[in-house]
Amino acid sequence: MPKEPKRKMSAKTGQSTRHAPLGQVIQDDANRDRYASMKKLPRSGRDDDDDVEESDMLLDVKTSKRILELSKEQMKEVEEEQVRSARRRQEEKVRMELHDSSDEDSEVDEDIEEVDLVQHDEGYVSMSTTGLTPEEEALLSNMMGGTTGDEPQRKTLADIIMEKIEEKEAMAGMPEDEEFEGGVELPSKVIQVYTDIGKLLTHYTSGKLPKAFKVIPSLHNWEEVLYLTRPDQWTPQAMYAATRIFASNLNPKMAQRFYNLVLLDAVRADIYSNKKLNYHYYMALKKSVYKPAAFFKGILLPLCKEGCTLREAVIVASVLQKVSIPVHHSAVAIHKLALMKEYNGAASIFIKTLLDKKYSLPVPVIQSLITHFVSFAESDEELPVLWHQALLVFVQRYKNEIGKEGKEKLRNLMKVHFHPKITVEVRRELFGSAAWKEERNASDDTMTM
């Protein structure tokens, strides 16, 4: 078979000088597009390629090191975010503690089911309903020294500040040798700075507070400097921001002064004016529980002693429901509430709220509660349903700690003060269903005779 004649190739282009058949040209073009042509590199070119590969290897090491550093930073950020989210979950768990108050023991029957007394609406916290009949409200109002909407007569923060201003003006007119020794005049620049801060706080809504305001808790005359800012004119937002600062930086004794003179007065004035409490004041009350001893001594106990209104007591009690308080602070507060000589509806509300937290109370506190309730056996005056509710919660939570003698005293008490729905539940908790039925049958026979 004859060989195919060789084609003459061009030295420049490397292509055939003769035209190939059309089919061969199409096939060659397709192969050229599909496969890359191989070219031989000179010796020097191969050496250069080795250098490029070596530099690529070095570049890969640097890149890998940088990637590792970035991954470590990202892992650190992820761990920090996990810690923050865990902290937020813990705080949310504390805030939701109110909703976890179900008990294995039988609670009040459906016909005695309690109503949530507080509702949140449009930036305010209000008392949705008292859960009392009009007759019971009137009875409770008489015992609390006023109506549910009236504010007891007391010296307000504005009165105290005006007295301070008048005192300063009187001192300014005295000769220097007649000024009392304890009077220390503040520099005019300090007075100007804190007066300007006070003007800022009268329309404060959000943002950072001036640094000069944040250092007030560290001053030895912090109370005098604080009055320069006119706390009676602060916005609710400013009161909340200030409470956060003072609750965190003042010791319990100083925090008690701030709570009692500033925060409590603002809260009561807002409730009196609007018949409900601004949400920022409500949050300030919750923040004040950060110092439990100061909260009880500066807010809760003064409310009971000064004769607060039912609306004030219910709103403050809702704060107690929604925060976690150490048991020893709550035990002391319950003990002091139980030792109050005159009956106060607010005391029953606070006692019931604190007992619902199911603390493991010491024996002296249990005994003081028994004494508190039994002391009403000598009074023939009708007691409101709040008192009966507090008694029911007490026997539900601590019936095993009351003792035989205490139960007998409570039995005699219930013969004097009887509620048609609640007292039967108290007897069932204390003496069981059999004793309760027997005692009820005996009382029915007595009524028949």
TrEMBL record:
Residues 62-101 have a biased composition (Basic and acidic residues). Residues 47-57 have a biased composition (Acidic residues). Residues 1-10 have a biased composition (Basic residues). InterPro entries: Bystin. Residues 1-110 are annotated as: Disordered. Pfam families: Bystin. It comes from the Eukaryota. Belongs to the bystin family. This is Bystin. It comes from Cyclotella atomus.
